[in-house]
Write a structure and sequence with these properties.
The chain has one domain: Spore Coat Polysaccharide Biosynthesis Protein SpsA, Chain A (Alpha-Beta Complex). 42% of the residues lie in helices and 16% in strands. It is built from 11 helices and 10 strands. The strands form 2 sheets. Strands 1, 6, 7, 8 and 10 form a 5-stranded mixed beta sheet that branches. It has a 5-stranded mixed beta sheet with strand order 4-3-2-5-9, sandwiched between helices. It is globular, with a radius of gyration of 18 Å. The termini are far apart.
Length: 326
């Protein structure tokens, strides 16, 4: 069924025992970078790396891949500037692909190298709020869960909320506003995990054993991005695992520029690939009509903020007498 997520259930999760903050989870964060413009480098420098470093964990692993970026040298220099601070992680790998592998191929290369209990492929245009990676990892390891994602301000479908307006700039005041909303969300939605039909692929957290069972991104049908995340999440669901949103965790996506900067660097090419890959997805799953109906529904969610997590957030805030930050 295409829209089985319409009747959703909110599951309270007791964060105790092994899942407490005192027992760190081994995580592998995988990032593929294809930077064709200065906007991405600015986000990396002012949001991505600083927010990642604050969550350094000696048990965890960072895998950074430069997928033959047009700004390859600039990207390399930026990464080198942050490498000393990234050493707070137990293992840091920086890899430069000899040829462009595309989104799926480049991420698969990193995922195959991952050694953590939880693997987190993530776009390079995000801001990790405090505790977000650890929270996602905890939810990913709940019994029956195959993949989880965060709440965001600039994504696609159910996870995206318009209750938070994206940062205007990279100032301390705006980044503090991001953290303030994240703190509010944690209080309002504490311990809640919400099953959902689909997740946006900008940030996914999966148990490594689940990924090994269902396989990696389908980089044969979707070699250069778009629909490969939809396909992977569907395969995880088809294998009998839960697809869920970590409702207490907020990750900002895109900064002042909005989401999917990497894809939108080439808007015409991205549009063509979106249509072609959508047709390939429909053929693979023998459901062209359902594929595009689902796309239209998720687009409606994104634009109108109806049928998104916003309704649950408003209700939780009302029950707990919390004011939603501006």
């Amino acid at each position: 069924m295409v829209y089985q997520d319409w009747n959703r259930v909110i599951i309270p999760v007791l964060m105790g025992g092994k899942m407490s903050g005192h027992n760190k989870i081994r995580k592998s964060i995988v990032v593929s970078m294809y930077n064709a413009g200065p906007a991405i480098l600015e986000i990396l420098d002012k949001m991505f790396f600083p927010s990642l470093i604050r969550q350094a964990d000696s048990l965890s692993q960072i895998i950074l891949i430069n997928d033959c970026s047009p700004l390859r040298k600039e990207t390399q220099k930026l990464v080198e500037n942050y490498l000393p601070e990234l050493r707070g992680f137990g293992d840091v790998k920086y890899i430069e692909n000899e040829q462009n592998l595309g989104f799926g191929g480049s991420y698969n290369k990193g995922l195959m190298m991952a050694e953590g209990d939880v693997v987190i492929p993530v776009n390079d245009d995000v801001y990790f709020t405090l505790g977000s990676l650890e929270s996602l990892a905890k939810v990913a390891l709940l019994p029956g869960v195959g993949v989880c994602g965060p709440v965001t301000d600039s994504g696609y479908g159910y996870q995206k909320t318009q209750l938070f307006k994206r940062p205007k700039d990279f100032s301390e005041a705006e980044l503090a506003r991001v953290e303030n909303f994240a703190s509010f969300l944690k209080k309002a939605m504490e311990g809640k995990v919400i099953p959902n039909y689909m997740l946006s692929g900008f940030c996914l957290a999966m148990p490594r054993n689940v990924l090994k069972k269902v396989g990696y991104f389908d980089d044969k049908r979707f070699p250069f991005g778009l629909w490969e995340d939809v396909d992977l999440v569907r395969r995880i669901r088809q294998a009998g695992f839960e697809v869920v949103v970590d409702a207490q965790t907020f990750i900002e996506h895109g900064g002042p520029y909005g989401q999917s900067n990497s894809i939108l660097q080439r808007p015409f090419t991205a549009t063509v690939r979106f249509i072609v890959n959508g047709l390939r997805f429909g053929k693979k799953w023998h459901n062209h009509v359902g594929t595009w109906l689902e796309f239209l529904y998720r687009t409606w969610q994104t634009v109108t903020d109806h049928g998104t997590i916003s309704a649950e957030i408003r209700e939780a805030a009302k029950v707990k007498n919390l004011e939603i930050p501006k």
